[in-house]
Amino acid sequence: MIKIAFASGKGGTGKTFAATNFHYTLLKNNCRSVLVDCDAEAPDALAFFESTSLKIKEVMQMVPVIDTGSCTFCGKCHEYCNYNAIFILPPVKVIHVIEDLCHGCGACSEACKFNAISEKPVSLGQVTTYINDYGHVLIEARTNIGALSPVPVIKAAIKEIDKNAEIAVLDSPPGTSCPFIQTVSASDYVILVTEPTPFGLSDLKQSVETLRIINTPFGVIINRTGMGDNKVHEYLRDEGIPLLLEIPFKKNIATLYSTGKLLAEADNFFEKQILAVFDTIIVRNGNSYHQR
Amino acid sequence: MEIAIISGKGGTGKSSISAAFATLSDKVVIADCDVDAANLYLLFNPVNDEEDVYISGHKAVVDPGKCTNCRLCINYCRFDAISLINDKVRISDISCDGCFLCSRICPENAIKMVQNDKSRMYSGSFRNGKMVYGRLAPGEENSGKLVNLVREKARNISKENNIEFIILDGPPGIGCPVISTITGTDRVAIVTEPTISGLSDMQRAINITLKFNLLPSVIINKYDLNPSMTNQIRDWCAGHGIPVAGLLPFDPIMVESMVQGKSITEFDPENTINKELKKIWNNILKKNNYE
Question: If you measure CA to CA, which chain B residue comes closest to A147?
């Protein structure tokens, strides 16, 4: 199986647009593709495919519960907690867990020598597997409102991918911090989607820097060419980064997308372009995939 | 007064609109809270007076000379960050959460915690006031904490220089850096666009804002791309008591001004969009009873 992540530093460059159209095109050409929406804070890919929920998995994290009866207010758990999630005032015998700050590492449980700490699970979000009439599968990571980090939900969503799938298309969250890293580090190839503007270029550079550090092969799609300037093109040329595809800046494409429709469904030429990109990726990186 | 501009969905125009607000009239303090992908400095070219190192967290590193392969750390780590590869204990930088537990329980003291010290916070002046921004190094974490520092710095600067308005250009999403951007602010504006994703992400952004007891107002950007979706968003907002501060048309001049390194108000002061922006700004400040 090949996992391809669609990512970008800047939000709104067209990650979901590209990921949904790639997924659709692969399915139409008889390839067993699974779409995984890893943008758990703002999951939107589902809107483009009619499907019904098959199973829901709650993603849980353990948080400490302190039994104030056996607690000696020694402060060891507070000292062990690197996230300031345990508030303690020994003189007045007050101890309190701030669940929103807890990362569930278990250090406090280890610290306590008086068996005063037990742990309970709390929900961080859900991973839902959807299926349509043709048996095509879509996996969505969705964090609860107020959850601090989407990372555990993203990890759980990637684990849900069926091993029999030929291709997994991962729609990554924006940025270059942990949620992005979790998604791209699980992938064999990353397609960075950018736009030809100063903001697009600056964020693209940051994504490229990160991908070079973690050593994942990547190429770039420039969305909305025709607007902005040529600096992104120049940058790709200077750095020898493959330009996989350019999508023109057209109002009708934006309007079509806004209604939840896929361009590849309406436009044969776009479908052919996507298949060509896909061939390029396979040919360039083919051998290593077969070994996996 | 702190005014946070957020969106849920990325690319709806937060930074362009924040930049326009920052150059509408009086001097402001602008804080770029999108520390993952800070962009406003590209428009404003601030002259930085200060650069601070931000320690974003720690990573565990194992000393192979001391490690006896007892695997205790592997059993304790809840982030699946430690594994045995070719009979050697390896800690994955990507998965390590920096909790210190492995370094504490290792019987051989073979695990050391090292600081992530590549992130920075900058503050300085730009042509219409003061600017603060953070830059999280690639792959580093705890962006919410950096946002808190950026805001604290911005508040101090606003006091010292007697500048009334602080504009917070927020990150996309609804996670930790967004929560850090909106908690305790005076106003929150959510920029959306008339797409299915725009509507759904706006709803999640509104929910997170309400959770922190703030009433947001909504700006519908590029409203003419899909007028019926724009109406759907307005109806939804009306039905939920969320004020719509105003609508902005789709106009390539927004991108053109960005390419020229200017905000729309600087690039084309006569453009009618500026009147709309001014109206929206006043509506956000009013907080209630719009349209």
Answer: B175
Which domains are delineated in chain B? 2-55+119-286 (3.40.50.300), 59-116 (3.30.70.20)
Helical segments of chain B, H only: 14-22, 40-44, 72-76, 101-105, 143-160, 176-182, 196-211, 227-239, 253-259, 264-267, 272-286
Q: Is A9 close to B195, i.e. CB distance below 8 A?
A: no
- Cβ separation of B226 and A259 shorter than 8 Å? yes
Task: Locate all alpha helices (DSSP H) within chain A, ordered by sequence.
Answer: 15-28, 76-80, 107-111, 151-159, 178-185, 198-214, 231-239, 251-258, 263-266, 268-291
Written as tens digits, the pLDDT of chain B (291 aa) is 999 999 999 999 999 999 999 999 889 999 999 998 899 999 999 999 999 999 989 999 999 999 999 999 999 999 999 999 999 999 998 889 999 999 999 999 999 999 999 999 999 999 999 999 999 988 787 788 999 999 999 999 999 999 999 999 999 999 889 999 999 999 999 999 999 999 999 999 999 999 999 999 999 999 999 999 999 999 999 999 999 999 999 999 999 999 999 999 999 999 999 999 999 999 999 865 444
Contact across the interface for A198 and B259, Cβ inside 8 Å:
yes
Q: What gap in Å lies between CA B201 and CA B114, rounded to an integer?
A: 37
Using CB atoms, which residue from B100, B229, B258 is nearest to A197? Answer: B258
- CB < 8 Å to B140, chain A: 177
B121-161 pLDDT, tens digit per residue, is 999 999 999 999 999 988 787 788 999 999 999 999 999 99
Give the residue from A178, A183, A233 with the most B CB atoms within 10 Å of its CB, the best one to mutate: A178
C-alpha–C-alpha distance, residues B263 and B267, integer Å: 6
Band of the pLDDT at A290, cuts 50, 70, 90?
very low
Q: What domains are there in chain A, each with its CATH number?
A: 2-49+136-291 (3.40.50.300), 61-123 (3.30.70.20)
What is the ipTM for the molecules in this complex? 0.89
Using a CB-CB cut-off of 8 Å, the residues of chain B touching A9 are 36-37
A42 interface with B at CB cutoff 8 Å: yes
pLDDT tens digits for B91-124? 998 889 999 999 999 999 999 999 999 999 999 9
